[in-house]
Design goal:
Blueprint: E1 4-9, H1 14-30, E2 34-39, H2 42-47, E3 55-58, E4 61-65, H3 71-78
Parallel strand pairs: 1-2
Antiparallel strand pairs: 1-3, 3-4
Helix pairs in contact: 1-3
Length: 79
Amino acid sequence: MENLTIKVYGSGCKGCQTLHQNVIDALAEMNISADLQYITDMQKIMEAGIMGMPALAVNDKIVSSGKVLSVADVKKYLG
């Protein structure tokens, strides 16, 4: 499997932190190692074209924005 890059974009709000933790949990449950980044820099968030937070990107492709995904939902994007 190629090197997986996952980015969680958020302002640091509770929902954003929950999504970040859910990604960590999903990776652990699936036994996947990934380069996980938590991006709170508004400039970078705007440059990525994100309209709703929190947002999740897998290998620089935005797969979700504006909602907090459950661990099960995150796994769908990783599997």
